[in-house]
Design goal:
The protein has 14 helices and two strands; from the N terminus they run ααββαααααααααααα. With 338 residues, the protein is mostly helical.
Length: 338
Amino acid sequence: MTRDARRAGIVLGVALFLSYAYFYQAGGWNQNSRFALVRAVLERHTLQIDAYQLHTGDRALFEGHYYSDKAPGASFLALGPVWIARGISRAAGVDPEGFPGLAWTSYVAAVVTSGAFTTLAALAVFWLSVRWGFSIAAALFAATAYGLATPAWCYATLFMGHGLTAGCLMIAFAASVALDGEHAHRSRLAWVVGLAGGWAVVSEFPAAVPMLLISALAAITTFRSHRSDTGAVIGRIVAGGAIASLFLLGYNALAFGSPFHLGYASEEGFEAMKQGFFGIGYPTPHAAYEVLFGAYRGLIPLAPVVLLAPIGLVWLARRPATRLDALVALLSPPFTSC
């Protein structure tokens, strides 16, 4: 990447991050469920959210105790920053468990997870655009459109799993595309694919499907360019994913008595959340229509700029070197959203 491109990327990243950090949307069932787990660990040294269960309807009931029903990735990632923020509150004479203290710490949780990783996702869009041969101006347009002209901006200001997961998947996708580089970089990039993709699944279970697609892209990219390293790259991706999965398996074992018992299996009041595999179902025409054109959060009404996306996909698909990249980019969203 040229010096001008790096400078443009830095300016873009700072501008997006500050725009996300400016807003605070407070709580809701989804956010409160994740933040309840953070509070339970830091305030009561437990995974049970009994003390906060009235703050959310997104909860799991298991053996008489309440737990967050959400994938724990966002909550785990926020633990350190929130612990520091609580210390800052005490130093300023503010009770971290009072309303001002909770507003501050929940804001920090959202900024360091959703805000930071939405910024990283936009930067990945910028880097990929430049790598694929687009101009810096075109790359800035694509990355800015993603970061400010789609629902990504909204989710970047909410302590939910969407922004964090999108950021992790985009990091893994960009790393997989770059695996045709030199040997030293390829070794590190394989770890990035595994760790980032694995944490995407730990943060939102439906990310398992695009993670499999991205892993396949990484393996094929390596096989095409450096066939002898394919086994090592696959091994590092699997190892990285396994490291990330240990956090989920450990959480499940401590909370529900089994590493394979997901919170959704004990969901209270929303039976549909218990269906499918890892919360994943087959994409259907009706679901696709609602996601794209529905009056309630339909992507096209909210972000008409995405109508330009097929142009880019067709341009990539026409080039043999980027055809597989385009296919993975095309297939991942339906499984994640529908």
